[in-house]
Amino acid sequence: ETSIYQHLWDVSRKYSRFSSANNHLIGEAAGVYVAACRYPHLPNAEVWRRDAKRILIHEISDQVDPDGVHRELATGYHLFVLQFFTIAHIVGQQSNDAFPAEYTARLDSMSGFLKALSAGGRMPLFGDCDDGYVLDLGGDRGDPKPWIEIVDRIVGHSTTDGAFSECCHEAANWLFGPNAGTSKAAEPKSAQLRSTHFHEAGIYLLQSGRTGHGDAISVTVDVGALGFRSIAAHGHADALSVTLRAFGAEFLIDPGTYDYFTHPEWRDYFRMTRAHNTIEIDGLDQSEMLGKFMWGRRANARCIDWRPDGSKTRLIAEHDGYTRLSDPVIHRRSITLDESSGCVRIADVLDASASHNAAIHFHFAPECRVELVGDRVVRATRDEGAIEMTLPDTAEIRLSNGETSPILGWCSRAYHEKQPITTVRAGLGFRGRIQLTTTVQVCKA
Question: How does the average pLDDT of the chain come out, rounded?
């Protein structure tokens, strides 16, 4: 108990402030709150408990927008802070110190975002991820399903009569006690995928088909801010980047993070525009990197039109990241999902006056077998099915895999782990205004 007291004393007197008042502050307050509730007889525990609870209530509304998306706009950190908020909520209930309804509602919204994002298959990444976790019980620490189930139990959405799925049962026992509920085998249920959006966060999902079926398609588009507050520490230069899942499997991916401090050239690469499924102009990033966790001039993205209507869903968005050039360039992207044909159409408009070089990059999941068919058709096949991508006919097409000079064709699915993948680069020069069309045909499984 002496050590716990010393930790409480030390953390509570120097909570993170200014640019560090992000997920760090949430973790500090959650730790103090849990310890102060569990050891109420320690000197000053009551004051520390009240202060920590006040911080958590403030931060869940300050750092999480009404859509339920953590404002660092990084999938890994969203799941990380959800765990802190959830555990504090459970401890509060067990200590007769319940959190207010507004806190519970925002927690529910955070879980709802993860539920929507993971309905089409493995949850797509965006922004930084360092594999941070709060409770490690030997499973996949990046899997949101256990935490979705736990939040469903807290807010009253659970319809399983007290039973948890196998992936969640052990976590539930630790959080709710040994009588939390029996374990039930996971029973995947088919559900209709529907297009949805999280407007304030700028995350759009164009979806069709049914989960578990060969017609399931899920496209995620990032039209969000670079990151949280002044330094946007965990953001990537990925405006208008897309990911694509079909048949519940990944095809076009966000390559991840890999490293923060040890390998600066790799830290830079995984944040670059070329490491995302969007367009790079004149070899420059959309936003200016100033350090490992610092940005200067930022790209501002905005939605122009969103129509999730009928059998076709369309999104039109643009960003101004390249208006900093001496000859400004606006990148506008239109993405259309045709449910009847299983075709995704990406139309990019680059609006400038003078001459520039553009490069469209598409990064494929490591499980994909990628080949160039003819001059401009790329076929990606994996066990679940295949897609065919037709690239602009004016572009020079090149496939890269595990290149190091310059770095291209890599992904990282865990911190300090990386592996080669196939990246398609479609490069071209242009002058003035140009439209580039890429179509992705999902070949039904």
Answer: 94
What's the pLDDT at 189?
76
165-206 residue pLDDT tens: 877 878 888 888 877 766 665 556 789 999 999 999 999 999
Radius of gyration, CA atoms only, the chain: 23
The model's pTM? 0.95
Return the HEC string of the chain: CHHHHHHHHHHHCCCCCHHHCCHHHHHHHHHHHHHHHHCCCCCCHHHHHHHHHHHHHHHHHHCECCCCCECCCCHHHHHHHHHHHHHHHHHHHHCCCCCCHHHHHHHHHHHHHHHHHHCCCCCCCCCCCCCCCCCCCCCCCCCCHHHHHHHHHHHCCCCCCCCEEHHHHHHHHHHHCCCCCCEECCCCCCCECCCEEECCCCEEEEEECECCCCCCEEEEEECCCCCCCCCCCCCCCCCCCEEEEECCEEEECCCCCCCCCCCHHHHHHHHCHHHCCCEEECCECCCCEEECCEECCCCCEEEEEEEEECCEEEEEEEEEEECCCCCCEEEEEEEEEECCCCEEEEEEEEEEEEEEEEEEEEEECCCCEEEEECCCEEEEEECCEEEEEECCCCCEEEEEECEECCEECEEEEECCEEEECEEEEEEEEEEEEEEEEEEEEEECC
